[in-house]
Specification:
235 residues, mainly alpha, 12 helices, 59% helix, elongated
């Protein structure tokens, strides 16, 4: 039973002052609120030689699509901390956004030399290979990413900038190949989800759905059969 009765007078004491937030903590809160300009100001009040703050400032500029300023911050972070694979990855995403895929690949590979078990960097590298139509290399990186983190394509990177599907030019083709990857891993629900995305984005090679060996295990599912009846999107 809860008792709300006060049985004695409370002692009057000086309540401790709440600890003040650091520049980084204030910036992180503003980033979470998507107040990127304010976050940049907050981060600027911290140590200019702090690689983490330079990287986070770069991410804020990146969100504002100020790619030149983002790249400069990432480069500063790497100069301060050469083994900072998060900042190297983020620099790669700037090159990707500029459609300089060869340079993006170089940065992602550099990040993986520093820390080879980063699933999101492998996925970024795969996406850059995909943009250059190097499909075999792309699928190899996607498989590696899924092995390291089975949910890598279903969540955002926790530390930096991860490419999103909207950045892929041929999203229909991208979604189709993602469906084959998930199907080969016996994850039929996600395979069907990505197939649906592919068809909604205008994937035209519908014959592949009945011929692709990876789909053998899901071909008799009602959800798969339903996909075959979808009207192709008019682009």
């Amino acid at each position: 039973m809860l008792d709300g009765t006060r049985t004695s007078s409370p002692q009057v004491t000086d309540s401790p002052k709440p600890p003040s937030l650091t520049a980084e903590q204030r910036g992180d809160i503003l980033m979470a609120r998507k107040m990127y300009r304010e976050a940049i100001e907050a981060f600027s009040e911290g140590n200019s030689k702090d690689a983490v703050l330079r990287n986070k400032t770069g991410i804020a500029y990146h969100q504002l699509m100020q790619l030149d300023k983002a790249a400069k911050c990432y480069e500063q972070a790497v100069k301060l901390k050469p083994d900072y694979h998060e900042a190297v990855n983020n620099l790669g995403t700037v090159y990707y956004a500029r459609k300089s895929y060869r340079r993006a690949i170089s940065q992602y590979r550099r990040a993986l030399k520093i820390s080879p078990d980063q699933a999101s960097v492998h996925s970024n590298l795969g996406t850059a290979y995909f943009a250059r139509n190097q499909l075999d290399l792309a699928l190899t990186e996607f498989r590696t990413a899924l092995t390291l983190d089975p949910e890598v394509f279903e969540h955002h990177s926790s530390y930096g900038v991860m490419l999103q599907e909207r950045s892929v030019q041929d999203r229909a083709k991208y979604h189709y190949w993602m469906a084959t990857l998930y199907a080969s891993q016996n994850r039929g629900d996600l395979a069907i989800q990505y197939l649906r995305k592919a068809l909604e984005e205008g994937f035209k090679e519908r014959k592949k759905l009945t011929e692709e060996p990876a789909f053998a295990a899901i071909r008799e599912l009602p959800e798969f059969k339903e996909l075959l009846t979808l009207e192709p999107r008019v682009l």
